[in-house]
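chain below, 300 aa
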Amino acid sequence: MINFLDFFLYAYTFLFGIVVGSFLNVAIHRLPRSRFMGSDDLVCPHCEKEILSIACPHCGKEIKDDDPRPSPSKAEGARSHCPKCGALIRWYDNIPLLSYMVLRGRCRDCRTRISWRYPLVELTAGLFAVAAFRHFGGSPAAAIYFCFLAALIVVSFIDLDFFRIPMIITIPGVAVGLLASGWLPEMGFMESLIGALTGAGGIYLLRRTYMLVRGGEGMGAGDGDLLAMVGAFLGWKGALLTLMAAAFIGMAAGLVLMAARKKGVKLRVPFGPFLASGAMIALFYGKPIIGWYMQFLTMP
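prediction:
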């Protein structure tokens, strides 16, 4: 039974998580449009053609990599605003989860519907914060793994939109995993390093195998970076479990999408969200799953 103090701690943790989730929404929206992810190799998720440029939704002018940054007097344009009418979002309309419910999912000014993704990201971040606190207590591991889960959220939604995993998250993520390995349970620097190499190597082998068999790329290089980050945080066993879980989840999702798609429509599914889902399973349930598997192998 949860006492009042535990309830207060969980509530505070959840509130902290949804606030972080609000910032994750900003990262998901702005990272693909920033210099950290140039537009030279973005792919449209609808027509699957390369996006050669990004245009401002207000003035319609093309945004180029060598364009100067806005002056301080134009900093207002960097604030959160409605993509339809351009109205700046007031602070009381930017409260995680609550504002979405009060506004009934619509812009206060033009009444355009707001994407369900915003509250979903905030809610997911809040639940992950509670899960990390419940699983690891008040240890440094809880904070470290919450940051890891937050990175997975951002990577997943960007990959869903652009079929691209941002290196600005995964490569520094590998470094953070290596440096933080001493504070993680049953981890150490060598375990973290081997995990990162296992993750990157596993995806590389799968990509090469697919190329030899099918003559094309079945996975992007970003998937290898993502699994390397997972391995840096979860070790080599966690990386392998993540890959297997992602394969099963991806296979199930692919079958459902194939059954639902219209005839003649080409199916293209990003693998990043499945890797992220597998990593979440490995983080919270990896130990019992691996224990059961090892016991199964040793059965007479």
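Residues 69-77 have pLDDT under 50 and may be disordered. Residues 1-66+79-138 form one domain.
thats it, cya
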